[in-house]
Amino acid sequence: MFLIFVVILALTGAFAGVVSGLLGVGGGIFLVPVFLVLFRAFGVSEEVVMQMCVGTSTATIIATSLRSVVTHNGKGAVDWGVLKSWGPAMGLGAVLGVLAATAMHSDTLMAIFGIVAALMGVYMLAGAPRGRLAPSLPGPAVYAPLSGFIGFVCAMMGIGGGTFGVPALSAFGLPVQRAIATSAGFGAVISLPACVTYLLGSTGNAQTLPLTVGYVNLPTFALISLMTCLTVPFGVRLAHVLPAVRLRLIFAFFIILAALNMLRKAFF
């Protein structure tokens, strides 16, 4: 049973790394549903299982996003000005998102994850809307609350900043490759403060996995981080040489199925 657990985690981490580098959406959208199945199978208490899933997923995003940023920056695609201006509110939103997640019942968090994941899948199926909201990036009155919202939702769900960052930056005129590269940086900005907050959280007397600190299981974090770091560069290379339409559609169907399964578990 333990060997199966390790093999599934390793394969999931490898897949999440490719997806993160290729589409800039962050691997958390795939990791959390897998974590939920595995953590439940190993007896994690229902009242904290979803929080452990998103907390551990958030921790893995640190390594994935940093590796992705370094690789994208090697191609000159990261907009550091956007990262510096959007980062502070995004980091604050991330901390607030963790506090909200740990205050919720696990089923409520599961339902929120399912709804947002389903919407993301539909968005990916439909493709990015044509046209732009504005010819250039917005000023502080717009990007401060927008980046704070992105940080809040992503930290609460344990997903990378690219999930919302890529569509937002693209809508304001940033070329898609540059939006993907910069959103990889969003993942680091969100996951670092969010991970610290999850680590400082308390599960009380709830049953968790061995070597769990706060809401983060350290062995799972280590294995997933290792695998994603190995495969992110492959996804980045694909992002710069392949039209990702067909792959995006495949991933969208997968996300929708995972979201529907999450909603089923939350409500039935």
Automatic annotation (TrEMBL):
Matching InterPro entries: TM_pro_TauE-like
Main location group: membrane
Keywords, ordered alphabetically: Cell membrane, Membrane, Transmembrane, Transmembrane helix
Any Gene Ontology CC annotation: plasma membrane
Ranges in coiled-coil conformation: none
Cellular location(s): Cell membrane; Membrane
Residues spanning the membrane: 26-43, 48-66, 86-104, 111-129, 149-172, 179-200, 220-238, 245-263
Topology in membrane: Multi-pass membrane protein
Keyword Transmembrane: yes
Pfam families in UniProt: TauE
Family as reported in the entry's similarity comment: Belongs to the 4-toluene sulfonate uptake permease (TSUP) (TC 2.A.102) family.
Protein name (database record): Probable membrane transporter protein
Source organism of the structure: Pseudooceanicola albus
